[in-house]
Amino acid sequence: MPVPSIVSKRILSAALCFGVCLGSLLPGLATAQATAQALPAAVPPQRIVSLDLCTDWILARHADAAQVAALSPVNPPYQPKGLQRDWPRHDGTLERIIELKPDLIITGEYNAITLRNRLKTLGFRVAILPLPTSLDGIRTYEHLALSLLNKPAGRAHPGAAPHPQTEKNAEAETNTAPRLLLLGANGVGTGTNTFEHDVLTQAGWRNYLDAPGYQQLDLERVVTDPPEAILWASTEGNALANAFTAHPALRSALPPSRWLSTDYWRWQCPGPWTWELIDDLHRWLE
Predict the structure, then answer these.
(1) Residue 143 has what pLDDT?
(2) Of 39, 162, 227, 247, which cross-links 208 as Cys (Cβ 3.0–4.6 Å)?
(3) What is the percentage of the chain residues whose pLDDT exceeds 90?
(4) pLDDT band at 186, cuts 50/70/90?
(5) The sheet that has 48-50: what strands, in order across it?
(6) Cβ-proximal residues to 13 (8 Å cutoff; 6+ apart), any chain
(7) 3-state helix, strand, coil in the chain (%, to 5)
(8) Is 14 a domain residue?
(9) pLDDT tier at 236 (50, 70, 90 boundaries)?
(10) Where among 155, 185, 216 does a domain terminate?
(11) What is the DSSP string of 90-154?
(12) What totals of helices (H) and strands (E) does the chain contain, helices first?
């Protein structure tokens, strides 16, 4: 039998060592894997700061009061019904937010850009919630918020069964759905290709306006061919911005029963409350 060379001996020795070492490591690997599986879920944030009105409302909807260190400065005048509480608030300055020592800062995608970037640079955890632009986006928005709060997804609003309706069907002459004019301040109406349009059609209405976007209304056209109903979606008051709705000709064109109103705040920030708005709009058809 040939005598093994020095190289062969070294290979054999390395192989034996690898087998022994691997055998000794396997119990440790198994223990580490079991430990990792047994680790508790991420600890929920305990000091949350909001920089945005819409994120104020989603926190008011789902966060525990003890979790909220402060909401944005604009929150008090615009507290939605059902979410009122004497929430703490900050003044919007970098210094004050640092003093609050938040473990989570949330804001909308278009708000407080400079402030949130500075907070990120200082090492704070900043989460940005993209504002929904579709009804399906509301589900994503709410689920993301719940995930940040370490809350179960089952807390989300169930929404409504989708009833997709193309622009062709919405404008077809055979469509017998009543027409609803969504009227805002300064005589501005809401047309197609908007989030509000999706809300109206989901509720079973037909948009009075068939052109895209937000439009300055022609009073003579509305009086001559009035919609089946007008939804006044603006703040109340005697401001000049509301003068269009107060015009005697328009008030004569539609009886008081065909002037509808909802909580103005529910049009400002899409969220789980949008489904409740859709339910309200649909009930007016029944």
Answers:
(1) 94
(2) 227
(3) 50
(4) confident
(5) 68-70, 48-50, 104-108, 126-129
(6) none
(7) 45, 15, 40
(8) no
(9) low
(10) 155
(11) --S-HHHHHHH--SEEEEETTS-HHHHHHHHHTT--EEEEPPPSSHHHHHHHHHHHHHHTT--GG
(12) 10, 10
